[in-house]
Design a protein that fits this description.
Number of helices: 3
Organism: Streptomyces niphimycinicus
Protein name: Flavin reductase family protein
Shape: globular
Largest sheet: 7 strands, antiparallel
Keywords: Oxidoreductase
Structural class: mainly beta
InterPro entries: Flavin_Rdtase-like_dom (IPR002563), NADH-dep_flavin_reductase (IPR050268)
Radius of gyration: 16 Å
Mean pLDDT: 90
Low-confidence stretches: 1-5
Strand order of the largest sheet: 3-2-6-9-10-5-4
Order of helices and strands: HEEEEEHEHEEEEEE
Number of strands: 12
Length: 166
């Protein structure tokens, strides 16, 4: 195999992971005081159908780490191409993430993207340490499908479904 990575360093590992396209989500919650929090995650997956569980990974160094590990609920918003700039803002530390964007609040006051490809609302079931991240396991209590197509993250850029891979 050409370009085989031998040994392991952080740059090589990141480069190898960048070769795996993944979906893009903006995960949101609100603190007990009502402050909204969120982050962009491409490490999101279905965990179980019965019971309905999903998982999302959050960097322990994220500004919103304590808000999510203390949260009772969180929302996974599956991003469309129209949300690319918003997803980049939510991936940037220190940004005022909710300053721009078309978020609405669900009945629990959690931020949702009404035009997301899908919105999955969860109860925090468990937070499991995983290296420099925590794995948030959510029990899904509601899922809503939007009309937009999701966007993928591949080699450091957004890839639209149906687009040819270079």
């Amino acid at each position: 195999m050409a370009d085989q990575v031998q040994g392991l360093d952080a740059a090589a590992f990141r480069s190898a992971l960048a070769r795996f396209p993944s979906g893009v989500t903006i995960v949101t919650t609100r603190s007990a005081g009502g402050t909204p929090h969120g982050f962009t995650a491409s490490s999101f997956a279905a965990l179980s159908l019965d019971p309905p569980l999903v998982l999302v990974c959050l960097d322990q160094g994220a500004d919103c780490f304590s808000a999510f590990t203390a949260a009772e609920q969180f929302v996974v918003n599956i991003v469309t191409p129209a949300h690319a700039k918003l997803a980049m803002r939510f991936a940037t530390k220190g940004e005022d993430k909710f300053a721009h964007g078309s978020f609405e609040s669900d009945e629990g006051g959690h931020p949702i993207l009404p035009d997301a490809a899908a919105v999955i609302r969860c109860e925090l079931e468990q937070a499991v340490p995983g290296g420099d991240h925590v794995i948030l396991i959510g029990r899904v209590h509601d899922a809503r499908i939007g009309s937009g197509k999701p966007v993928m993250w591949y080699r450091g850029d957004f890839l639209h479904l149906g687009q040819s891979v270079k």
